Amino acid sequence: QVQLVESGGGLVQAGGSLRLSCAASGRTLSRSAMGWFRQAPGKERELVARMSWIGGLYYQDSVKGRFTISRDNAQNTLYLQMNSLKPEDTAVYYCALSNDISAIRSRDFDSWGQGTQVTVSS
């Protein structure tokens, strides 16, 4: 059974940084497509960043140059480094995995973490 556990969320002032972690068990990241999604109150869940085991980096335009997705295969952990945070980045952040190398839509991902709250104050 796949289990994803996110951590690293919290309250930060605008311009600050956070690093989210997603520890995976039951599936190896080295054979998965991986993504970070977020959902703000009253809004749909949206893809923030994704990568696969052969690369395939994608970033939402609003986070390009500020966020970096990465993984540690030895720790089987996915990361999202978030710099220069803005109030509009406030949301619950979720990590997700897929066996589909081309996965990019929310419905393409079959394993989800419980989410971690990120709040950016102005």
Task: Summarize the entry for a quick read.
The chain is mostly beta strands and 122 residues long.
Describe the structure.
By secondary structure, this protein is mainly β. Helices cover 0% and strands 52% of the residues. It contains no helices and eleven strands. Strands 2, 4, 5, 6, 9, 10 and 11 form a seven-stranded mixed β-sheet that branches. The protein is globular. The mean pLDDT is 95.
Question: Which labels suit this protein?
Answer:
globular, four-stranded antiparallel β-sheet, 122 residues, seven-stranded mixed β-sheet, 0% helix, mainly beta
Briefly note the structural class of the backbone. mainly beta
Low-confidence stretches: none
By DSSP, the count of extended strands is: 11
Helix content: under 10%
Tally of separate helices: 0
Question: Gap between N and C termini, in Å?
Answer: 40 Å
> How is the biggest beta sheet arranged?
7 strands, mixed
Inertia-based shape: globular
Let me know the average pLDDT: 95
Question: Would you list the SSEs in sequence order as H and E?
Answer: EEEEEEEEEEE
Beta-strand proportion? over 45%
Radius of gyration: 13 Å
